[in-house]
Design brief:
The complex is a heterodimer of chains A (197) and B (469). With 197 residues, chain A is α/β, with parallel strands linked by helices. In chain A, 32% of the residues lie in helices and 16% in strands. In chain A, the strands form two sheets. A four-stranded antiparallel beta sheet of chain A has the order 1-6-7-8, with no helix packed on it. In chain A, strands 2-3-4-5 form a four-stranded parallel beta sheet, with helices on both faces. The longest helix of chain A is centred in the middle third of the chain and has 13 residues, at 117-129. Chain A is globular, with a radius of gyration of 19 Å. The two termini of chain A are 30 Å apart. Helices cover 31% and strands 16% of the residues of chain B. Chain B is built from 15 helices and 18 strands. In chain B, the strands form five sheets. Chain B has a five-stranded parallel beta sheet, with helices on both faces. The chains are: A alpha/beta (197), B alpha/beta (469). The interface between A and B is medium-sized, with 25 and 45 residues. Bound molecules: iron/sulfur cluster. Iron/sulfur cluster (SF4) is lined by residues 65-66, 110-112, 131, 133, 349-350, 410, 413-414, 431-432 of chain B. Iron/sulfur cluster is lined by residues 65-66, 110-112, 131, 133, 349-350, 410, 413-414, 431-432 of chain B.
């Protein structure tokens, strides 16, 4: 997991509610042996439609997904988070997230920003009206700013998750911080224990 | 440090705590990490993505087992997904410097067969693998359990695992087994008692005279199926049987190390006065050959019994499950199991594919012939088991009797390779899971011991060796 301090950039407005993880990444994509390459599966059923928002040129290069309420419900598949990240999004904004999806985001460093419904609507409208609208998500201050419409709100992020985001630590990253304790333990390992080398 | 009496599992657990904080899972050190082609690819990919390395490739061992065919292994694997998983494992292990035993290598085999036979599985160790039947290794007094793919990645990167505390459970088998009963019947009887959830949240320790009298192969069969009653792991205290099995194996300690190891290993038993959170006691004398009739391993009866009726279950959920299972299995309540005709016999899997299992089956097959029309597969657990069996002439006995003698792998245990049941086909199988479709879509699986499997192949219906004339 890479450290995340500030996510700044433009957004894609996905103006639909109740987007479940089956829609984010259809089940055919779960057969892969890799943990990468899921970007092609992101919303793959919708992307065949040329009018789908992600196919619009003016939103190319956006790194934030602005979604409707109830985003990421349904199946617990972590692949949904992988697909969103690998496509190039660093953050998702929604008035409400599916809880498992939201938790999966914290394991992978995808910033899930939950906002009040009216703030969500205002941002959605602003981005639809002007695709160059700039958004700034500050993980350290726990704030979301959209200067062009004078929005500055704070969002919820637990201290533990914030610590992991700022330092780029997943479970493995956290355990690696205990490297010294692990190394000390290894020294006390009896010599009769086998190795595979 | 207190001197409170401890159970075996508590001793091994406490010996591996790297760090511990109240209310948090313990960080446990992992002594041996076994990997195979199915559950490891995304873990390796995760390492690459994060620029991480494998902390201890020298405590990690890989083999190809789930996907490998059991015939024509000199040819490339025909199935594309299978071939890709195997190739991916080869590339990953070579990139990260991990020893892999590939298809065709004499040390290759089912991951839970090769650890013990190489002497890598030893008392008091922590052993993990991305596979639920890792509990097998508990037969040596090791704490061994299955993990998920993200945990595989965690172990690769850190050689540790975060684990919440578990309860302790004693399963005591008193007395003596009747003639003709085996370790598989013991564990099937335990499943009949504990159902599929009696062990959830606990580490089980199998104890008592029946367990002590079992060989290492038998103990592995029992521990293998711990996960089927929901236990985190199953363990048996190491004793002279364990030490005799280990002595001289390639990775067993030698010389002064062997003596030091023995001193430590002898302390690995549950202290007098230690208490368990749960206790189960069974009388060995009641354990005759068993067979499953339903679609989970807890749906099991004595082979001498008849197919149960759903009405026999008090609990409504169990009654409904029984009715569904009978329908799927194509069985009628009241039919004696001995009258149920079988289409296929599978002798193999990490439950029953070791040399002793093959000897038991061969002893029944010797001088007899498989029933006309019966499909049979004998799949040794590893290249070394196959070699040993052939040195003893067991393959000849099987072939002469009409059994199909195959190359090592998981095979029809889970049907990821070409060995599978067809719709409605009924098998007597020495494996560990009789779930719907486990051995092929629509297939009907009955779990039995190797001796019963061999006798059934000859009789054509479920039979014990004593039933054959
Ligand atoms: S033999 Fe069956 S249970 Fe054992 S590891 Fe292979 S697939 Fe799993």
């Amino acid at each position: 997991m890479k450290p995340v301090h500030i996510v700044q950039g433009t957004a894609v407005p996905l103006d639909r509610s109740d987007v479940d993880t089956d829609q984010i990444i259809p089940s055919d994509w779960l057969k892969r042996v890799e943990r990468t390459g899921f970007e092609k599966g992101l919303f793959s059923e919708w992307r065949d439609d040329p009018t789908f928002v992600m196919n619009q040129e003016e939103f190319a290069g956006a790194n934030i997904l602005v979604a409707g309420p109830n985003f990421g419900t349904g199946s617990s598949r972590e692949h949904a988070v992988w697909a969103i990240q690998q496509y190039g999004f660093d953050a998702v904004i929604s008035p409400l997230f599916g809880p498992i999806f939201r938790n999966n985001c914290t394991k992978n460093g995808l910033v899930a920003v939950q906002v009040d419904p009216d703030v969500g609507n205002a941002i959605m409208a602003a981005v639809q009206a002007d695709p160059t609208t700039e958004l700034v998500i500050d993980v350290e201050r726990r704030t979301l700013e959209v200067p062009s419409i004078s929005v500055e709100v704070s969002f919820e992020l637990s201290d533990a998750v914030q610590h992991r985001f700022l330092n780029g630590l997943d479970d493995i990253g956290l355990t690696l911080q205990q490297d010294e304790a692990i190394a000390t333990f290894e020294q006390s390992r009896p010599s009769f224990k086998p190795t595979t080398a | 440090m207190t001197n409170d009496p401890k159970t075996l599992s508590e001793k091994v657990w406490d010996d591996h705590v790297v760090s511990s904080e109240d209310g948090q899972p313990d960080l446990l050190y992992v002594d041996l990490h076994l990997i195979h082609e199915v559950t490891s690819p995304q873990a390796f990919d995760g390492l690459r993505q994060n620029g991480r390395s494998v902390r201890r490739p020298d405590l990690t061992i890989a083999t190809e087992d789930h996907n490998v065919p059991t015939e024509n292994i000199d040819q490339p694997i025909a199935d594309e997904t299978s071939a890709k998983q195997v190739d991916t494992l080869r590339a990953n292990t070579s990139e990260f410097g991990i020893t892999n035993y590939p298809m065709g290598h004499v040390n290759q085999g089912i991951v839970h067969v090769i650890g013990p036979e190489q002497g890598l599985t030893q008392p008091g160790m922590t052993i993990v693998c991305g596979d639920s039947h890792t509990s097998t290794h508990g037969a040596f007094g090791a704490l061994a359990f299955g993990i998920g793919t993200s945990e595989v990645e965690h172990v690769l990167a850190t050689q540790t695992l975060l684990q919440p505390a578990q309860e302790t459970m004693s399963i005591h088998i008193d007395g003596e087994l009747p003639q003709g009963s085996t370790a598989k019947d013991v564990v099937l009887a335990i499943l009949g008692e504990c159902d599929t959830n009696g062990g959830i949240g606990a580490i089980a320790e199998f104890r008592g005279p029946v367990i002590e009298a079992l060989s290492m192969e038998g103990r592995m069969t029992v521990c293998n199926m711990s996960i089927e009653f929901g236990a985190k792991a199953g363990m048996i205290a190491p004793d002279d049987t364990t030490f005799a099995y280990l002595e001289g194996r390639p990775n067993a300690p030698k010389g002064a190390d062997w003596e030091a190891a023995l001193d430590t290993w002898r302390t690995l038993r549950t202290d007098d006065g230690a208490t368990f959170d749960r206790e189960v006691v069974l009388d060995g004398a009641n354990i005759s050959p068993h067979v499953t009739w339903g679609t989970n391993p807890g749906q099991v009866i004595k082979l001498s019994d008849a197919v149960p009726s759903p009405d026999m279950f008090e609990d409504q959920t169990a009654r409904q499950a029984a009715a569904r299972a009978l329908e799927y299995m194509g069985l009628t309540a009241g039919t004696p199991m001995r009258d149920v005709p079988v289409d296929t016999v599978f002798i193999g899997s990490c439950t029953n594919s070791r040399i002793e299992d093959l000897r038991a089956a061969a002893a029944v097959a010797e001088g007899r012939s498989v029933k006309d029309g019966m499909r049979t597969l004998v799949v040794p657990g590893s290249g070394l088991v196959k070699e040993q069996a052939e040195a003893e002439g067991l393959h000849k006995i099987f072939i002469d009797a009409g059994f199909d003698w195959r190359e090592p792998g998981c095979s029809m245990c889970l049907a990821m390779n070409p060995d599978r049941l067809t719709e409605g086909e009924r098998s007597a199988s020495t494996s560990n899971r009789n779930f719907e479709g486990r051995q092929g879509r629509g297939g009907r699986t009955h779990l039995v011991s190797p001796a019963v499997a061999a006798a059934t192949a000859i009789a054509g219906t479920f039979a014990t060796p004593e039933d054959l004339s």
